[in-house]
Amino acid sequence: MNEIAKNRVHTIDVAKLQTYLNAMGMANNLTKGEFEQFVEIAQGFGLNPFKREIYANKYGDKFSVIVGYETYIKRAERSGLLAGWSVVTTGSVNMQKPKESTLVATITIHRKDFQFPFVHEVHFSEYYGTRRDGTLTDFWKNKPVTMTKKVAMAQGFRLCFSDELGGMPYTAEELNAMEAETIQTNNQATKQPLEQKPVINVDVLIAQIEAAKSKSDLIDIWKKHPEHHGNPVFKTAMTDRKKTLEAPTPGAANSSDENSIEHLIDQIMTAETTEMILELTIDNTNPDVMDAAMTRLEQINGGVQTDLFEK
User: Fold this and answer.
1) 270-279 as b/e, with b when 16 or more CB fall inside 10 Å?
2) How many alpha carbons fall within 13 Å on the CB side of residue 243?
3) Which of 113, 120, 209, 247 has the greatest CB tally within 10 Å of its CB?
4) Which residues lie closer than 8 Å to 142 by C-beta, 6 or more apart?
5) Percent helix, strand and coil across the chain, each rounded to 5?
6) What confidence category does residue 189 fall into, taking pLDDT thresholds of 50, 70 and 90?
7) Which residues lie closer than 8 Å to 253 by C-beta, 6 or more apart?
8) Exposed, middle or buried, 173 (CB in 10 Å: 0-12/13-18/19+)?
9) Cα 159 from Cα 163, distance rounded (Å)
10) In the chain, where do the E strands start and end?
């Protein structure tokens, strides 16, 4: 395989991007300009939303296009120039005074065409995300090392592979910190009380999700806040809480998860359209479910393999 073929990105069909937005409940929330921006970025970089490579994120009047940090790694590997990488952390977090934290994530990337390794540092004190009241968000409070590492990986690969990754959208972890800084700056400039903000912050909703006692509670939260349907942090919290509520109680039979997967596979194998399969699998990464989806997609498409779940 020559270098051109190996590094070529696959153009994502506009109809599939529209299907993704419909499935996410965002199609009617985006303006024409926002939709065109999402399509342009997805097609320009060959980013596939069905492979969790790109997300459309809108809550309130704020719209962002986000990529997963794994996308940077995959593109670096595809270049054929990546010879290895590692990321380590030192220091600690001061929960009471985050600005005084000493936690640092350092990523080291080895390129085959570089004489020396590329090294990049990210300081927790410069990138932690906050709520509107200035306190740490749940993710940055509970997983500070992981979050700081993610920012280091995204920035490190974007800088080290600037030709391949330059101009690609930021990750959710980076935007989280940027948006927090913007909120604080705007509040200071306008001297507007925080309570007057009309948009409910996602961290408030995450607290509600974690306190949900049943799946019906989660459904109510989901229906009341369509502006957050495209927010990956909101979706992840919903998915995690749903799994917790569905988990068997101690001493109960362990067959519930298996039965749930078998039932989902049965639904997939009787689905009549690609869109139905997408709705059934949009948040699922179980390999058996993915295999069933691929098999059914091939059947629907007359034996022609679709790239909807391309590995």
Assistant:
1) ebeebeebbe
2) 9
3) 209
4) none
5) 55, 10, 35
6) very low
7) none
8) buried
9) 9
10) 54-59, 62-67, 82-90, 104-111, 118-123
Query: Dihedrals φ, ψ of 308, to 5°?
Result: -60, -35
Angstrom distances, CA of residue 237 to CA of 85, 98, 211: 30, 24, 11
Residue pair 18/27 in contact (Cβ under 8 Å)? The answer is yes
Distances (CA, A) of 52 to 277, 285, 290: 16, 10, 14
User: pTM (2 decimals)?
Assistant: 0.52
- For residue 37, what is the enclosing H or E element? helix 32-45
Q: What is d(CA 306, CA 304) in angstroms, rounded to the nearest whole number?
A: 6
**Residue 157: its H or E element:** helix 144-160
Give the DSSP letter string of 229-254.
Answer: TT-HHHHHHHHHHHHHHHSPPTTS-S
Q: At 269, which amino acid appears?
A: M
What is the Cα–Cα distance from 286 to 258, expressed in whole angstroms? 11
The domain limits of the chain are: 1-67, 81-192, 200-246, 264-300
Give the three-state DSSP class for 89. strand
Contact between 120 and 152 under an 8 Å Cβ cutoff? The reply is yes
Contact partners, residue 188, CB within 8 Å, separation at least 6: none
- 228-270 pLDDT, tens digit per residue, is 776 777 778 888 888 888 776 554 444 455 567 788 888 888 8
Residue type at 44? G
d(CA 75, CA 7): 8
Contact predicate 231/202, CB 8 Å: yes
β-bridge mates for residue 119, sequence order: 108
Q: How far is Cα 196 from Cα 203, in angstroms, rounded to an integer?
A: 17
Residue 43: count of CB within 10 angstroms of its CB: 16
Torsion angle in degrees (nearest 10) through CA of 168, 172, 177, 180: 110
Q: At what angle do helices 255-269 and 232-246 cross, to 10 degrees?
A: 120
